[in-house]
Hints:
Structural class: alpha/beta
Shape: globular
Distance between the termini: 18 Å
Bound molecules: NADP nicotinamide-adenine-dinucleotide phosphate, zinc ion
Amino acid sequence: MATKAYGAQSGTTPLGPIDIERRQPGAHDVAIAIAYCGVCHSDLHQVRSEWEGTLYPCVPGHEIVGHVTAVGGEVTNFKVGDIVGVGCMVDSCQHCASCDEGLEQYCTGGGFVGTYNGPTDDKPGHTLGGYSDAIVVSDKFVLKISHPEEQLAAVAPLLCAGITTYSPLKHWGAGPGKKVGVVGIGGLGHMGIKIAHALGAHVVAFTTSDSKRDAAKALGADEVIVSKNEDEMKAHAGSFDFILNTVAASHNLDQFTGLLKRDGTLCVVGVPEHPHPSPSVGVLIFGRKAIAGSLIGGIKETQEMLDFCAEHEIVADIEMIPIQKIEEAYDRMQKSDVKYRFVIDSKSLADA
Ligand code: NAP
Ligand code: ZN
């Protein structure tokens, strides 16, 4: 199926219109007309080759929402017209221990297939993402959306930013009686604040931007700390059960491990272009503290997160853009100048 898309031909050329081909839906496939696609910092890292291994042409986008336009003969869970989402994965081996447990993001049978830049038999040999007007995805990787349809654009960022924060918050037990930090108030961080608050934790937001202090409270933070302010940081030393760090740039992690209680965990989800300076062992051993990582979330948990957010009336705070403004959006995201997620209106692809 001929499909309009937007992508880049190299790490140093701007994104522009590309015509791509989607496969005809197979027996287990769902074809989706994309209505909106969120803009994740991972899109920027990959399309500009900040991480190794980007394949070109690169069509980013893994926060996809839209309507089902066709289903294969074996598909029973979805029908034409349903409102659905697709996140960061479109396939995995389906038989390793991780896949069996619904943790496809940790698939050991060859790794999961990313929504873009992943291996596929479809042309051009790697997957092409949601900066496009349609996609065809195996039914196992399609999510049901139960939010009201008018909120659809603001639901898109849940497919990556929502699950990437929900999964570690749940895993490390964020909830009543727990003091939880969220570092970096961007796309991921603002969802982390909303979700940790809804889970019942005492939420402290850390930001480098003075201007986000009031906004962070409005998102659900009980307290806000400007992390450049040493006195504010010191006042919280040794007090956190869990800190979720979403920062997209290399920085000193000791600032945050120092704030953990005994047995506390700092979980990093940000994947900066350059490594963080080595954390100090001393800060970790005096308190049996841990630094951990977490990758998106499995399909079952992504559905659980979407249902949790619908029930708690949680959506992202978004700024809608036409696809033609994507380079401007990336430049602003790099300056932490977005409140809090850009979302592409896919209708704009018609003018591409
Ligand atoms: P984003 O919207 O750009 O937000 C990142 C935030 O980090 C900024 O808004 C800013 O918040 C803070 N920040 C930026 N530069 C900083 C610096 N030099 N020092 C301290 N803080 C800084 O990005 P995002 O889409 O949320 O993604 C965040 C990171 O997570 C990216 O690296 C992305 O690739 C990664 N990611 C990982 C996963 C996973 O599964 N692990 C999934 C999705 C994304 P303040 O203004 O509040 O300081
Ligand atoms: Zn993402």
